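Title: Comparing notes on inverse folding

I've been comparing how different people in this forum approach sequence design from structure. To keep things fair, I'm posting one structure and asking everyone to reply with a full sequence. Here's the target:
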């Protein structure tokens, strides 16, 4: 809608932090974009952005305006999807911020299943850590967040919470692969590969080791769970991940690693949260996709 065009331009400038970068994104000249911005500032009677040597920054008035703009854009997308629903069409866009564990198996399966019934719906999937995912909800960059052990923020509403018992991942011929369940002290004689400390799995492992006399010292560390899984397949190391990041029993994936649950006495389960911005009415497409995921969580991870 043309009356929202200038407001969308302001949103793009705020996200880019630069009129020139925003103009590149919008495929217009920076002069034309700056002219639109100056006209809006003149109409409001206050500057929206503080001009800096290397970009722009929202003023206090700009902060108020950008909240209004993002709410307006979000509400418009919701109404558009509802109108399409009335017309018998399934259209819309679903934007998701998620932890790394959701990327290899779960989300590809769920999005493919949803789009098979709703081919007019598009998706954007953005890898974000816990804090960044929640920030994306707050600034309306995404509709839904799927994160492990999120930081508790008052503006976030939890749609669903599912336990994720930690699994030990190893090669199929690893000596511990024959065990149905792993104790942490079983892992001491073997090399360990761990995610970096900022990840929830590593945090839980470190907390668990505070209660015992032994330490699992990593021979390899990485911020990539895919690398850690693949590395476990080529050396007799043990790494740790959550079930949502591993192929389920019904998957067709041929993988050279196996995974076994870690005994809950040694390591408590993590929690996976499906969340949205509190007080926001989701567009139809996002709401229905969230419902589909909740049904799948209940099927796969029922307590």
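Reply #1:
Here's my take.
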């Amino acid at each position: 809608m043309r009356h929202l065009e200038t407001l969308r331009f302001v949103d793009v400038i705020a996200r880019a932090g630069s009129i020139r970068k925003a103009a590149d994104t919008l495929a217009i000249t920076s002069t034309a974009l700056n002219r639109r911005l100056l006209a809006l500032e003149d109409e409001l009677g206050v500057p929206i952005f503080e001009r800096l040597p290397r970009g722009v920054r929202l003023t206090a008035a700009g902060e108020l305006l950008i909240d209004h703009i993002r709410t307006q854009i979000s509400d418009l997308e919701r109404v558009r999807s509802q109108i399409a629903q009335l017309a018998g069409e399934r259209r819309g866009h679903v934007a998701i911020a998620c932890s790394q564990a959701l990327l290899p198996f779960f989300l590809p399966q769920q999005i493919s299943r949803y789009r098979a019934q709703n081919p007019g719906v598009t998706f954007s999937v953005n890898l974000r850590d816990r804090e960044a995912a929640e920030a994306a909800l707050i600034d309306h960059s995404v509709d839904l967040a799927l994160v492990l052990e999120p930081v508790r923020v008052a503006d976030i509403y939890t749609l669903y919470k599912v336990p994720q018992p930690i699994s030990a991942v190893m090669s199929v011929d690893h000596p511990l692969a024959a065990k149905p369940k792993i104790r942490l002290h079983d892992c001491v004689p073997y090399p360990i590969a761990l995610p970096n400390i900022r990840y929830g799995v590593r945090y839980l492992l470190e907390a668990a080791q505070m209660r015992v006399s032994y330490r699992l010292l990593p021979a390899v560390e990485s911020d990539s769970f895919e690398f850690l899984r693949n590395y476990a397949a080529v050396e007799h190391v043990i790494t740790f991940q959550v079930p949502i990041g591993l192929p389920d029993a019904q998957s067709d994936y041929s993988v050279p690693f196996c995974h076994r649950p870690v005994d809950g006495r040694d390591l408590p389960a993590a929690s996976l949260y499906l969340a949205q911005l509190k007080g926001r009415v989701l567009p139809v497409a996002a709401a229905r996709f969230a419902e589909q995921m909740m049904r799948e969580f209940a099927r796969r991870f029922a307590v």
